[in-house]
Design brief:
Largest sheet of chain A: 18 strands, antiparallel, barrel
Helix content of chain A: under 10%
CATH architecture of the largest domain in chain B: Up-down Bundle
CATH topology of chain A: Porin
Strand content of chain B: 15-25%
CATH superfamily of the largest domain in chain B: Multidrug efflux transporter AcrB transmembrane domain
Helix content of chain B: 40-55%
Number of strands of chain B: 25
Structural class of chain B: alpha+beta
Strand content of chain A: over 45%
Number of domains of chain A: 1
CATH architecture of chain A: Beta Barrel
Mean pLDDT of chain A: 90
Low-confidence stretches of chain B: 1-5, 778-806
Structural class of chain A: mainly beta
Distance between the termini of chain B: 38 Å
Number of helices of chain A: 2
Mean pLDDT of chain B: 81
Oligomer: heterodimer
Distance between the termini of chain A: 32 Å
CATH superfamily of chain A: Porin
Shape of chain A: globular
Amino acid sequence: MRIERQLICVALLLLPVPGNAAEVEEAEAKLRLGYSNGTSRNTAIESSATLLPRLGVSFTDRLWFETSARVRLHGADKLEPDRPVYDYYTSASRPRMLGDSNTAELRDFYFELNAGASRLRLGKQQIVWGNLDGLRVLDQMNPHSFREFILADFEESRIGLWSLYFDTSVGPWRAELVWTPDTTAHDIPEPGAWFEFQAPRYRYGASPGSPLPEITTDLPKSMIDDATYGARLSRAVGRLDIRLQAQTGLDYEPLGRLETTSRNTVLEQFYRKRQIYGLGFDSALAGLVVRGEFSAQPNRTFNINEAGDLRIAEADQWTGAIGLDLNGPWNTFINIQYVYDRISSPPDGLVRPNSDHIATVFARRTFAYDAIIAELRWYGSLDDNDGLARGSVSWAFSDNFSIELGADFFYGDEDGIFGQFQDADRVSASATFTF
Amino acid sequence: MTSTRNGTAQLFYRLTSRPRLVLILSGVFILVTASGMTQLSKDTSVRAFIPQDDPSVVNDDRITEIFGLSEPIAVAVTTADGGSIFTSRSLTLVRDLTNALTTVPNVRADRVASLATESSIAGTEGQVLVDAYTPRGEISEAAAASARLRWLDMPPHIGTLAAEDESGAVILTEIIDPDLAVETYLAILALVEQYETEGVEIHVAGPAAVSAFLSKKIDGDARVMQPLVFVMVLGFIFAAFRRVKALLAPFVVLLGAAGGAMGIMGWAGIPYFAITNALPVILVAIAVADAIHVLSSYYQLRSQKPDAETRDLVVMAMTEMAQPITLTTLTTIAGFIGIALASIMPPITYFAWFAALGVAFAWLFSLITLPNMLVLLNLGPSKAFSSWEDGRPNLLGRFFHRVSAFSARRHVAVLTVFVLVGGLAAAVAQNLRVDRSQVENFAPTEPIRIADELINDTFAGTSFLDVIVETEEPEGLLQAGRMAKIVALQEFIESLPHVELTAGISDYLSLLHKAINEERSTGSRRLPKEDDAIAQYLLVYEVSGDPTDFEEEIDAQYQTALIRSVLDSVFFSQTSDAVIQLEEYLDAEFNEPGMRATLGGDVNITYHWMSRLKQSHFDGVMLSLIMVLGMAVIAFRSLGAGLLSVVPVSFTIVIIYALMTSLDIYLEPATSMFAAISVGVGVDFAIHLVDRLRVALRLSGENVEAAIAMAVPGTARACFFNAAALGIGFSVMLASELPMLQRFGGLVATAALTSFVVGLIVIPACYAAVLRLKRAGLRWANRPRVSNAILLIAAIAMAPAERLWADNARGLEIATKVAERSEGDLAKRTIQMTLTDRRGGEKQRIALVLKKSSPQARLTRITYLEPKALRNTTFLSHDSRTVERPDERWLYIPAVRKVRRIPASDRGDYFLGTDFTYEDMQNDLKFDVADYHFEHVGITQIDQRMVHEISGAPRSDQIASELGYGAFKASVDEATWLPLRIEFFDLDAQPLKSIEVRDYEQIDGIWTATEIVAVNHQSGHSTRFTYLDVDYPETLPEQAFDQNGLQRRLSPDLLGD
């Protein structure tokens, strides 16, 4: 993508120009050393050193430049074994391979022009439009990497896209407009990866463990036709913060079709567009914070199994989520969420269930003036009685050094969203240095 | 200025946002529910108190069904000089009156019995002569003499138809419809007036008359008493608040509670029983209690803040009172439910359930309708609370304080006396009489009581104990052996205490036997020994007399017979022995295969009913006390506080039992109700006092005297008016004509006032004693952490109580000065934070603070600049100063790129690892006057500066919990109104942390702290804020304070770049 290179060049050119008043406002880097072990198989999942440099530069009072990157150096890596293909990424967003298993990727790279109550941001960036915890109903502007399923923080897994973003306030309204010509989609773990999807819903109806044909991916490339366009309006009404959202663009979840050639059968992954209309709100009620997100995706395209063949059909998808923040006993912060997702008038042979009910509970307590943070989190699918339980403790020894220990435990049937990873339990440890 | 600071306050702000709508909805609720009162059907009969499936009632109904017997009205004709009734004139009067009675509406003409309708049985020459006592035509003296002689040979008629001493005759008149008994009684009264002549007295009484007349009297009396109670209670509210407008709001609460419960009772088809008369009274008393507490709180606040917005004051009053009102509601409901579950009498069961419902309605109306009415009424200050203007309670409040303070000081003596009096009362109460006498419910001068007593004295009596003898087969009673057993049974019954005589078919068979065999009347019953003879005797009688003459003694199939015993006492306590012995006799001696006897009659009903009442009353009291205790323990989360709450009411009940024993007032259905009401209402005061004292004790560092000074004056005054309203309301019943209502009203009034007085004295004494033991046990003096608290407490406590009150207003004034200290409309500063842990490890943070103040709100934005890990983390708060918009808080966390709303109730949480809470950060060394009660402790000088020492105690548990502070003490510089040092105490009154202003200066004319140090005494952690680049600019960008703008970068000029 030319624009990527052009912007990088502009930035590099601007930085050293004498007299341009460019000033490095923020410069930091984090180094995280991590290790995780698969308890059920007693094997190292990943040992890595991750470098996260970030730079913020002001050129003028109004022009800001920010960039951040991620360099992963692996000792062991079962999350992306072998040499990952990254064919879900456009060339502009694709991580660069450093050797066979190490990667470098640009996370943010954008210029921001501020003018009063407006700002214009151009470049590779992450746009977060959802407010739920660990769940995404309206947070659909950027695709995610599922190399760690949903165990990585969204901040870590969200894939920055090359976008144009405009944000302005008019009276009580805040308006945000987005154009994302970058057609990078969700990064789905490749066969053999630790978190390779096993549930039939993510394997085009194939049973867990059954072999899939050779997979190819046909990623759209048009910066106009396949781009994502989004608009969001926000304002406060009394005690209620409400957000209205509309977006149209690439559906980041791949569809599949079987292509039979004279030699073999190939599963080709392809993409369709979708529209999302959403409403989000949050409010504080007598010691509680209540938040909700609702989305409608009319005529979304889904895979169906029809007479042994993989076809597509359209149906409306409705999703609603409600969440509560409250103070629990023993000075804990507790977050409870419930999501209901439903396909209305589902076509026969749908490879995914007609509906999902998911609940999450999150509890956190801090100790020693926030230096120690203990967290417990549970996700449960109420349909399949499978779930994920997570626990972690982090200890910030200083502002520059912290360690974290965690454990993730999956349970339930392997057809379920969480149960599919019943053999993927892990314990992990990491140490983070900030410079 | 008031800001909404907690969930309760916010709730009440929401509840009072549409006062007219709430009022309309309340009115609609009252109309809809209260209209159910038109559906109420009355059942004021005494029989309604007995479960209709009770075996004794079932048997009585069978007696009526089989033998046609029902409760009669007795008309007694007696000679004025005690001479014989067997004269021509008297018997003629009896006959004429008997005939006239048969024409009275509702009288069963065939069931009027007297010397004029009954016959004697005699035998001559093998003939059985059945002769009427009175001939049809003129009754000559000779006929009268003949009648006398024949009567003397008829034992069943001696003492029944005519008195044994011949001084009078009785006409027993059975009625058709018991519901019309009163009208019939009055008609008979009017009739007998026409027959009263010189030398003869005519009295009307009897069970039917007594029962019906009692119901009417209760009903009539209650009709007068209820409105009077209502007026008295409202009058008392006026006396308490001295504002006519103040009556309106409680009046609506009373309507909602009493009208709602009574109306739903009507809609549910529950009859209006005699005891239901007390329901509106008790609901009025309870409902008014809630209203009095809210109004008291409101007027106290109003006098202290005359310029405050009414709605703010109402919300503050409701915030303060919502919890105790809810507590007392729950405990009262628990008390009534206990009574309902244990009672065996349907009217009392319904009474308790609907009282509980009414109490719930009172709670709803007090919490929803009352505040809205207060907002609309916009009540001005009351003279009754004028002394509160300077924080000093009025005379009554001071008096109660002195009483409680004395009790606490002399707690050993007080509790000793209390235990001794309680023990003595319990000993006396052991002799409490459980009794019942229908006629004693009337005043001694009441004609019906005189008549009833005369009939009981002159004749055999009007109390009946019946035995129904049944055989399995028809004509089973014609066997001589069985008849002999019946005779033996009658002789046994006649040997029982208070039994005057028995009458049954055996008496007539004996008469027939003697007549046929021409034997002399010996007084003993003699029967033939052959089975056939009995049948033949009865045949002979049918030939000679009226075949229906024996229908009251034996049924037509000779299978079931009735033996009626007449007792000369109407008291349960005197007749119960007869029932017990008779039941034992029947089981042991009489019942046999093929023949069985059971008991009936009013004596039997009374025995079984009263026995169960006795048991259920004490069970009910225990159960309701246990339920109240359980509720109080749950509510207070403390077994001790729960126990303390039920001590006064338990003591009161024992005292009332002892009082009843001493005054010979027996426990009966009416008087037994005092306990239900005492438990329900009496516990309220204790709950209020325990609740306030617990808070005050915590705030005063468990100093009892200081706590009493804080809690008792206001609480006791409100409770006194509540208890007095209840006491005076029920005292109105002392003016009733019915001793039953007098006793009931007197006992409840005494119980209400006793509960109040005992609570006022005993609860503070108990706290003093417990704390003394606790201190002795824990050796607090050795604990340095506590010693600081004790110093503070001592500082507060050593001030005389009078001074404490006076210092309330001064404390508030100082706090208000601090709150009103100028902080600039706009402010910008950079804080350099140094966080030091107990080991000396340091962390540095730098944050930009922007503030914007307006009459509507104070907006605060804190954006972290350093360290890198926290950079751009931003906290935004909108601290509203208006009632409409509650506080709101958001946190922007760059790591997740999200703006999160955080609950305002987290204001006591520590701000991002510092020793300052969110509240501290936002309030900028000010105290929210809506959060605390303030006191002025004293004035000192520091470095030539005049410094006021003030202390503050959160207004409620909830506020304390939200703030995380149980109390504070501050040293306020009079020149700058900056608190130079604030000592905070935790919820357990332990020193928590101190905030010290180390340096300050005047910038742009505004006194500004430039160095503040907070030290947490419990963790050893400290935080130093050094303010840099303080500026009070002309403008700041609006978007900096907009939650939607938190993700945007602040402009470099704001950041000081």
